[in-house]
Amino acid sequence: MSNEKRTSADFFKQVFGRTVNVKLHNRTEYIGVLAALDGNMNLVLEQCEEYLEQKLINKYGQILLRGNNVLYISAKFNQKQQQEEEI
């Protein structure tokens, strides 16, 4: 990791269109492709799976998550994507 200063906008540019893991305050997790984001941190995920305590609850084609419910968003990169980012 470099000492270069990065912003949240940099993170979202990097993960837009890629698979992310979104955890809500109620401990529900969603894994899907980040399709849209607005200024209130409302997210649209596609090809989304819903998990509670690591158990698959449901699958959605597209889902809107309200920004104020989001605890964190993490990127899920496979090894090939990580190598491309390093280049």
Automatic annotation (TrEMBL):
A GO cellular-component term linked to this record: U6 snRNP
Keywords recorded for this protein, A-Z: Cytoplasm, mRNA processing, mRNA splicing, Nucleus, Ribonucleoprotein, RNA-binding, rRNA processing, Spliceosome, tRNA processing
An annotated GO BP: tRNA processing
Record carries keyword Plastid: no
GO molecular function (one): RNA binding
Primary localisation category: cytoplasm
Alphabetical list of InterPro entries matching this protein: Lsm6/sSmF (IPR016487), Sm (IPR047575), Sm_dom_euk/arc (IPR001163)
Residues covered by the Sm domain: 7-79
Record's subcellular location: Cytoplasm; Nucleus
Family to which the UniProt record says this protein belongs: Belongs to the snRNP Sm proteins family. SmF/LSm6 subfamily.
Name of the protein this chain belongs to: Sm domain-containing protein
Native species: Paramecium primaurelia
